[in-house]
Automatic annotation (TrEMBL):
<dbReference type="InterPro" id="IPR051026">
    <property type="entry name" value="PI/PC_transfer"/>
</dbReference>
<dbReference type="InterPro" id="IPR036865">
    <property type="entry name" value="CRAL-TRIO_dom_sf"/>
</dbReference>
<dbReference type="Pfam" id="PF00650">
    <property type="entry name" value="CRAL_TRIO"/>
</dbReference>
<dbReference type="InterPro" id="IPR011074">
    <property type="entry name" value="CRAL/TRIO_N_dom"/>
</dbReference>
<dbReference type="InterPro" id="IPR001251">
    <property type="entry name" value="CRAL-TRIO_dom"/>
</dbReference>
<dbReference type="InterPro" id="IPR036273">
    <property type="entry name" value="CRAL/TRIO_N_dom_sf"/>
</dbReference>
<protein>
    <submittedName>
        <fullName>CRAL/TRIO domain-containing protein</fullName>
    </submittedName>
</protein>
<dbReference type="Pfam" id="PF03765">
    <property type="entry name" value="CRAL_TRIO_N"/>
</dbReference>
<feature type="domain" description="CRAL-TRIO">
    <location>
        <begin position="93"/>
        <end position="266"/>
    </location>
</feature>
Length: 295
């Protein structure tokens, strides 16, 4: 559907609108993009790739082509098959994975963006891999990024009544040590690469809290893996972070572990709850499915 449009996005300049039209036309003409592709065929999807390559249509086309190839070939199955096999919001041993590396979506901020929270002080990959294979753990990481595009951002947009195209990430470094960083360094680098290459422009802001003194050294390594545009979205705070967080997030949407009042009682706690518009929509769909009556 070569003329597909989308929900409202920020107004484009004349040259940007022309770039978008050319980009769309060439993607269809060269069969890089087809109707029904799960990457998305709407303007907002295409704009993410154009912005990531500073509106250079040729570079954007190379980027989305590489993304399409990855989506079709990842793990020899492709992203669509993997997403059907493993629900990133409800997979076996998810509680164990989050015991040693919690990475979860929880509510939305004051602008309607989904909030991703990661507590890195509990990182213990050797212990995790006694229960879960490294391959399964890695799959859960990139399928969480896929879930952001498939379910979380669309649900947040519908809840807000306007387009939400990125999220707010909080990285909690309470108790985090340099030795833990060395454990996870390669995975962090790999995760950032996947995010920047295949899910561009989906992080609106990243707030690091409880940053230890060693983080200056760690950040010096990590920021070399990031595009400057991503670096510019990072805010680093110490342990007096609550006032700053509450400028972004309502207190009842923030987990109690971070100074808010939310505990997600009856939902397994904030880490496992999946609470947010995306969970509301899943429940609504489940409620409308008629049970199968066996004769």
């Amino acid at each position: 559907m070569e003329n597909a449009t989308t929900t409202s996005s920020p107004a484009l300049t004349e040259s940007q609108a022309e770039a978008l039209q050319r980009f769309r036309s060439e993607l269809w003409a060269e069969k890089i993009l087809r109707d029904g592709d799960s990457i998305g065929t709407d303007d907002d999807t295409l704009l993410r790739f154009l912005r990531a390559r500073k509106w250079n249509v040729t570079a954007s086309k190379e980027m989305i082509s590489a993304c399409q190839l990855w989506r079709k070939s990842v793990e020899g199955k492709g992203i669509d098959a993997l997403y059907r096999e493993m629900d990133p919001f409800d997979f076996p041993q998810r509680d164990i994975v989050f015991t040693y590396w919690s990475m979860y979506y929880h509510n939305v901020d004051k602008t309607g963006r989904p909030i991703n929270i990661q507590h890195l002080g509990s990182i213990n990959l050797p212990a995790l891999y006694e229960h879960v294979t490294p391959e399964k753990h890695w799959r859960s990481i990139f399928l969480t990024a896929e879930g952001l595009m498939r379910e979380i951002l669309p649900a947040a947009s519908r809840k807000a009544g306007r387009h939400i195209n990125n999220g707010l990430c909080i990285v909690d470094l309470k108790g985090f040590t340099l030795s833990q960083f060395w454990q996870m360094r390669d995975l962090v680098k790999k995760s950032f690469q996947v995010s920047q290459d295949y899910y561009p422009e989906t992080m609106g802001k990243l707030i690091v809290i409880n940053a230890p003194t060693s983080f200056t050294y760690i950040w010096g390594i990590v920021k070399r893996w990031l595009a400057q545009e991503t670096v510019n979205k990072v805010e680093i705070l110490g342990n007096a972070y609550l006032e700053d967080l509450l400028k972004e997030i309502d207190v009842d949407a923030l987990p109690a572990s971070l100074g808010g009042t939310c505990e997600c009682k009856g939902l397994g706690g904030c880490v496992l709850s999946n609470v947010g518009p995306w969970l509301d929509e899943r429940r609504s769909r489940e409620a409308t499915v008629e049970p199968v009556v066996k004769e």
